[in-house]
């Protein structure tokens, strides 16, 4: 695919923001690699593979690995659409400002409402999953209280690092990137080369998970193995005003996040499958947490401990990136007067130049949810399941809004452009997104109503509460921020570019 690069070298980041109606108020200290590291540690293949490895194998068997390729290809199309949007609108907040400028204030409010809740519960879920690694490393008994305390420690440490500024965020994100690459690619390659107990043909062997029926439903049921992995790349755009030359660099960082994340996940998932000494017991659902056993059998006790340190680093970096992305979305929401407490939430610290109050919220609410999980451990699975569907819904609201603007004549004016292919990519990305949401929302078959419909119930609660607030409080009327101006802004950017050349 050849990308059409628009000649816009003359326009500066400050001039670009001015055309969009904003002043440059952040430190642009984030490089391309740091921006990529932020998105990659948010996507976190280590977290995704570890969390869903046993579930994917017990539902779909070894062929469930192919979902990593299927979903990766679909999300790559979505990232290309996002790349064109952020290239024209390199402003803080990502999905909220994109949907506002592509469609309107009400539409953007709902997209951001769904997305912010999905991000907040994702922060909780990642910190909760990471607590198990920390407990194992330090020999702490895993119980509800220890899990809560370690989860809160993850949240607070990430908050303190975020308070210190963008440079610290970028530095830790790069450390997290290194930990992820060692933990997934390094360990995955080692397992593939030196610790194989299975043949590569196992990835075409269902191992009987379908029972007496067709394998199709079993394979579709294992889709979460890929769907849970490939989001987080949008975080690259959430911090756009802290990136130098974001209109060019952020689209590249998003694409790199998908490609490197996909390869990493394949190495990790494939390595664990091939190195499993008793794969049949995992597929049969008899081993609910097989990875520690695989690692200890392959790396020894010391090697497994080293991996735990790497894993904890990756989990902390993931929480850090999630907090940063959520706070920038809250800041962007508040800057336009679209959320209660907007004056407080939109404050930026004088020294570190970060939205400290928004960061506090992005730590406090996940901490409260963690307390609820401590009271009732069964809540963790529902909130995690909602997070995945909620994020995909928000993503596709951007894709749909972009397609709508294309039908109205929008030709993206950023330096990253797909040219004539943009229309086709946009349509296929939307079709993929609908397919993914149907898979995520399909009720289970356990026979328990709440368990089977919990994902739909969670999304329904968020949508209904958001709509009620929208039509009662009318936050869209409290903002004078520009909306639905994609065609006009594209023309202004082209005119401005020509004038300064």
TrEMBL record:
Where it mainly occurs, coarsely classed, is membrane
**Stored InterPro entries:** AA/rel_permease1
UniProt protein name: Amino acid permease
User: Where does the chain cross the membrane?
Assistant: 32-53, 65-86, 107-127, 147-163, 175-194, 214-233, 253-275, 306-333, 354-375, 381-403, 415-441, 453-472
Signal sequence annotation: none
Q: Does the keyword Cell division apply?
A: no
Query: Its GO CC terms?
Result: membrane
Highest taxon of the lineage: Bacteria
Q: Name one Pfam family in it.
A: AA_permease_2
Q: Which GO terms describe its molecular function?
A: transmembrane transporter activity
The alphabetized UniProt keywords are: Membrane, Transmembrane, Transmembrane helix, Transport
Where would you find this protein in the cell? Membrane
Q: How does it sit in the membrane?
A: Multi-pass membrane protein
**This protein's record includes keyword Membrane:** yes
